[in-house]
From TrEMBL:
Stored CDD domains: RX-CC_like
Annotated ranges, domain Disease resistance N-terminal: 6-90
Organism the protein comes from: Tetracentron sinense (Spur-leaf)
Every NB-ARC domain range: 180-272
Nucleotide-binding among keywords: yes
Pfam families membership: LRR_14, NB-ARC, Rx_N
InterPro entries: Apaf_helical, Disease_R_plants, LRR_dom_sf, LRR_R13L4/SHOC2-like, NB-ARC, P-loop_NTPase, RX-like_CC, Rx_N
Domain Disease resistance R13L4/SHOC-2-like LRR: 381-691
Superkingdom, natural source: Eukaryota
The protein's name in its UniProt record: Uncharacterized protein
GO biological process: defense response to other organism
Keywords, in A-Z order: Nucleotide-binding, Plant defense, Repeat
Amino acid sequence: MAEFLVAFVVERLGELLIQESSFLHGASGQLGRMQAELNRMKCFLQDADSRKEGDKRVRNWITEVREAAYDAEDVIETFVLKAASRRRSGGLEGVIKRNIGEIGEGTSAANELQRQLRESYPHDVEEHVVGLEKDVEALVAELIKEEERIRVISIVGMGGLVMESAIMKQVGAPNIELMKSLDVYELMGELYNFLEEKRYLVVFDDMWSTYEWDILKPAFPSGNIGSKIMFTTRNEEVAWLADSQSHPHRLRCLTVEESWELFCKKAFPENDDFAKLGRVMVGKCAGLPLSVNVLGGLLATKKTVNEWEMVHRKILDGTYDGVSGILALSYNDLPYHLKPCFLHLGIFPEGFEIPKNKLIRMWVAEVQYGLSLEKKELKHIFTHFELLRVLDLEGLFIKDSIPSGIGNLIHLRYLGLRRTLVEYLPSSIGNLRCLQTLDLRDTSITRIPNVIWKMEHLRHLRLGQEICSEHLRMDNLRQIQTLTHIRAGSWVTKCFATMTYLRKLGIIYKSRPEEVGAILKSSIVRSGRLQSLFLEFLCDIPLPSLTPISSCPRLSTLYIQGRIAELPTDHQHPRQDHDYEFIPPNLTKLTLDSSRLEHDPMPTLEKIPYLRTLHLRNQAYFGKEMVCIAKGFPKLEFLELRELNHLEDWRVDKGAMPSLRRLVINNCRSLRMLPDGLKFVTTLQELEITGMSGEFNERLEKGEEAEDWNKVEHIPSITLASVNVF
C-alpha cells in the first residue's frame, strides 16, 4: 500500500515539475529532491510492505511513509489547483520541507533493513492436519462409495475449519484451468454440457444460502449414477435442502491440546516462557485450524520473548483476533497495487451487490480512501472533508438542492447523485476541476449550470433523461469517455472533433431529424472508435438513414428508440459479408425500441455473426408473423420480446438459435402459443413469461399435463406469470 502511494506521488511530482514550472519558483528544487527521495523509497517498500509483520521498525516506518505520502499528495494537488492560479508557492515549500525531513530521517535505517530483508527468502510449509484425521477418512469413504444416485455431501461448520484441501489431497486434486469470464447462465450451460454423460465430483467451498443452491442445481445432470457433489457451508439448512437423504457432516473445532499440537508444528516455542504465552494466544483461536495456522505462521518470525509478548498484547486487545486477523493476513498477501482497491470495498454496506463498472470508476477516482455518508449532513461533509476524492450519495433521501459548499471539494473525482431527489445543482460545481465522473441519472434535476466545460478531467458524464442539456458548453471535455442522455443541439459539430476518447455515447432527440444526420456524419462516428451508441428519438417522425453506423467496426452495443426505415432483406437488398444497412460487423448487443417495423426483422438480424443479446421492445415490430430459420442467430444467448402487440405466430425451425440460454416474453398478448421448435433449443436454461393472454398461459400452467409442456420440459428454470414452475 505504502509503495503504491509513493509511486503515485512520484508521478504527480513529475507532472507538477513539467506542467507548473513557471509557478514553482524556489520550490522546484525541493520538489525535485522529494521526487528522487520517494523513488528510492519505492524500491525498498515494494519488498518491505509484503513482509512488515517480520519487524516492528519496518512496520512503523511504512506507517510514517504512508501518512507523509498522503500529506504530500494533498499538498501537491492543492498547489496545482489553488497556488498556481495565485502564483504563490511559499507555503508549499515549507510543508514539503517538513515532510521530506521527517521521511529522510528513516532512510539510513531503511537501507540496512532492506539489505537484511533481501537476504531472507520465503518458503512454503506443508499444511498440517491435526485432530481431523477421522473426519477426513469418513468423508473420503463417502466420496468413493458406489451409489445408484447422485449424492450431495455437505460439511457444516464455521469458516476456517480447513477440510476441503485435506480431502482433495486424499482423492486427488485435478488440474486447474482458468476459465473465460462467464455470467451465471453461461457457466451453468458450460458446466452441464461438460458433465453430461460423465461421472463427476464437484466441490463448492462456503455455500452461503439456499438461493445459491437453487441457482446452481440445474447445472448438474441428474442421470449420472455415482456422481458426487460436496460443499462446505455454515448454514445447515442449505445442507438439508441439497440432499434430504444425506446427513450433513458437522465438523467440530479442535480441542485445546490439538490446537497446541498444530501450533507447535508452525511456531516451535523454544522454552517455557514462549510456551506460556503461546498457550494463552492459542486459546483465543477458539479451535479454528486456520486461526491457529495464521498465529503460528506469525509467531514463527518472532525470535524473542519480547516480540511474542507484543503479539500477545495485540491479541488480547483484538488486533489479530478472529476473522479480522485472518483478513489482515489475506490483505497483506495482496500485490501492493491491489491493496487500496480491496480497502475501497469497505465503503459498501454488507450484502450490497456492487456494480462492476461503477466500482472501477470509483477505483480510478479514489486511490486512497472512501467514506460512507449515509447519516452525515452534507454541509458538515463539505466543511470538514475538503480532501475528499469520492462522494457517492446514490439512493439517499436528499431533496431540493445541493449546498453551494460542494465547490470546496476541489479534490473530488467522483460525484454520484443517482436516485436522489435533488432538483438543483449550484454553479459552484464548476470548481470541481479534478472531477472524473458525474452521475445525475434518475434525479429530479431538469437544468444544470453551464459550468461543465470547466471540468477538464471529466471522463464520465451521465445525465438524466429530463435534463435540458442543449445549452451546455462542452468543448473543453477532451478526456470524456462516456456521455449519456445528452440532448442534441448545436454543440455537436463544435465539440465532437475534440472528444477523441469518447467510447460510449447516448443522445436524445426531441425533434428535427436532421440533427440525427449531423451526429452520424460527425467525426466521432467516422473515426470508428465508438463502442456503445444509444439513440433516443422522442417524436413520431421516422429517423433518417442510419447507414453511417455500419462504419463503426468497434461498436458492440447499439440501442435505437424511435421509428426507423425498414430493415432490408436478402431479397430486397442483397448484401455480402453481413453488410445490412446500419448494422456494424461486430455488434454483440442490439435493442430496437418503438421501431414500428412492418416486415419481419429476423431474416436480417439472424445473420449478424456475433450477436449475443437482442431486445425487441414496445412495438419494435408491427407484423403478425415472425420466423427464425435453421442456423440463424448462431451466437445469440439472450432474446427478449416485449410488448409486440401485433405478433400472433412465431416459428422457430430446428437448428435455429443454437446458443440461446435465456428467453423473455413479456406482454405479447396476441401471441397464441410458444413455437414448436423451442424444444430443439437444448441450450435454453431460463424461460420467463409474463403478462401474456389467458389462452397462452393455459397451454403451460398445468405443468406436465399442459398442451405445450413438451416444448419446455427440458428447460431448468421456468417462470410463468410470476409463478416459479421449477
